[in-house]
């Protein structure tokens, strides 16, 4: 099974979610999950600024609570924000009541109508509830920058291999990813720019 691109049955399970944007436009949608944290997010913001690129940050509510200055910087620099639950909880291991409470708790800090479920999984009841209030954003390409089995070069190669028109590309501003991203993020952005891709945010 290809991990970098989602299986087709997942798109069928959650048909109202964004998986890929306009396939006729030479553009990609950069996203970053799990932050903000001081060890990773400032470098990512600096790199995005260097490339004049905007992104969407799917943030953990408790991290926003702990690092409100990073949240403010993300907004001040023209990026989008999204909800990644308050404690990065998995939908499959929590009831709809627990899950909805955690999303709402996060949104008190994040204030966004975009949600990305951690790990890309949720119960159908949770999906039905989220879809009524939020726009769910999944991905067309996950770089796997978090994997201890991959190098920075592997992450860049995943971008080169799987990026296409309308791709929603997922990186992470996390401790697991940042060492690789110091090399992989600027190289990926340069390659995407050289290929003629524009960097877009969601409508």
Write out key terms for the chains shown.
203 residues, alpha/beta, TIM Barrel, six-stranded parallel β-sheet, two-stranded parallel ribbon, 8 strands, 41% helix, 14% strand
Quickly give the structural class.
alpha/beta
The total count of helices amounts to: 8
Based on DSSP secondary structure assignment, what is the total number of beta strands? 8
Oligomer: single chain
Silhouette = globular
Low-confidence stretches: none
The first-level CATH class name: Alpha Beta
Do you know the CATH topology?
TIM Barrel
Q: State Rg.
A: 16 Å
First and last CA, distance: 31 Å
Helical content, roughly? Answer: 40-55%
Beta-strand residue fraction: 5-15%
* Mean of pLDDT: 96
The CATH H-level superfamily is Glycoside hydrolase/deacetylase
CATH architecture: Alpha-Beta Barrel
List SSEs in N-to-C order.
HEHEHHEHEHEEHEHE
How many structural domains does the protein architecture include? 1
Major beta-sheet overview: 6 strands, parallel
């Amino acid at each position: 099974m290809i991990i970098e691109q989602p299986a087709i049955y997942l798109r069928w399970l959650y048909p109202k979610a964004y998986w890929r944007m306009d396939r006729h436009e030479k553009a990609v949608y950069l996203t970053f999950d799990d932050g903000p944290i001081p060890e990773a997010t400032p470098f990512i913001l600096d790199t995005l600024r260097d490339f004049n690129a905007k992104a969407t940050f799917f943030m953990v509510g408790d991290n926003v609570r702990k690092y409100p200055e990073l949240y403010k910087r993300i907004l001040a620099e023209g990026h989008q924000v999204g909800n990644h639950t308050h404690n990065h909880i998995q939908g499959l291991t929590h009831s709809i009541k627990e899950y909805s409470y955690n999303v709402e708790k996060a949104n008190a800090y994040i204030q966004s109508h975009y949600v990305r479920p951690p790990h890309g999984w949720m119960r159908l009841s949770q999906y039905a509830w989220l879809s009524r209030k939020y726009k769910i954003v999944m991905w067309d390409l996950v770089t796997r920058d978090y994997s201890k089995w991959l190098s920075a070069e592997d992450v860049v190669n995943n971008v080169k291999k799987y990026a296409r028109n309308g791709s929603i590309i997922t990186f992470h501003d996390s401790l697991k990813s940042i060492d690789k991203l110091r090399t992989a993020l600027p190289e990926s952005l340069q390659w995407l720019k050289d290929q003629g891709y524009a960097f877009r945010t969601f409508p």
